[in-house]
Amino acid sequence: MREALKDKQRIVLKIGSSSIIHEETGGADYRKLETLVRIICDLKNQGKDVILVSSGAIGVGFEMLGLRHKPKTVSLKQACAAIGQGQLMMIYQKLFMEYNHMAAQVLLTFDAITDPERRRNAENTLNELLQQGVIPVVNENDTVATEEIEFGDNDTMSAIVAHLIKADLLILLTDIDGFYTDDPHKNPEAKKLTLVETIDDTMKNMAKDAVTNYGTGGMSTKIAAARIATDSGADMAIMDAENLTQIYDLMEGKSVGTLFLAHENDDFDTVDFIVHKGYQK
């Protein structure tokens, strides 16, 4: 089943705040960012379409403001996002240009997904950027959104993007190397699942939110992302962001991370799933 990953042509890569921010200082981890960009450019050079969904704007913003702790209030989070988003995008554009590729910023909110006209516009923009050979860098528009900051996450956002552009693979890069039967940080007996064919209630019960210091999502958001992606016809992999070069192993069909197999479901309503907060259930 993993051998088929070699032929994936349209890929969405998501990386979270905890994976590109130094936990001790809140500053950007340039080594990881450079490695990630180099891999994406290499995939582009192989003829694949790639979209990057990146968190980190709030983290970069509060580091630039000299704050010692993650902001708690919505207004301060929005202020940090306003400062950090431009800085983060500047970093990405500079790195992509070093490898002769162009990146474009795309900021989305849930209303851009749930409103038919805005959803169509977002879909057209993303597809046009891909057609022009540009790498879209997608994030939630945290500077104007409130519900997204409180309850949203880029796991769900990346799955929605995969749905919009009809991606055939979604890769979630996170601070754990796959989906476990329990939190491996707390339970040494937890076992990693390497392949998931069906997402059932047992798996959802396993997904307990172990929120990292700088991230906003836990395993439940990744299961929700898997439901959206796989029902939309895309395989999804959860992988360790500490070992970014394993993306090559994944694309070569090797057994890394946890792979959720696609099972396109015409009856699955992604918009209804989002509107009624199915990702929280």
From TrEMBL:
Reaction(s) this enzyme catalyzes, per UniProt: L-glutamate + ATP = L-glutamyl 5-phosphate + ADP
One CC-aspect GO term: cytosol
Binding site for ATP: K14, T174, D175, T216, G217, G218, M219, S220, T221, K222
Cited Pfam families: AA_kinase
Major location (coarse): cytoplasm
Known pathway: Amino-acid biosynthesis; L-proline biosynthesis; L-glutamate 5-semialdehyde from L-glutamate: step 1/2
Molecular functions (GO terms): ATP binding; glutamate 5-kinase activity
InterPro entries on file: AceGlu_kinase-like_sf (IPR036393), Asp/Glu/Uridylate_kinase (IPR001048), G5K_ProB (IPR041739), Glu/AcGlu_kinase (IPR001057), Glu_5kinase (IPR011529), Glu_5kinase/COase_Synthase (IPR005715), Glutamate_5-kinase_CS (IPR019797)
Family statement drawn from the similarity comment of this UniProt entry: Belongs to the glutamate 5-kinase family.
Function: Catalyzes the transfer of a phosphate group to glutamate to form L-glutamate 5-phosphate.
Name of the protein in its database record: Glutamate 5-kinase
Record organism: Wujia chipingensis
Organism lineage string: Bacteria, Bacillati, Bacillota, Clostridia, Lachnospirales
Primary gene name: proB
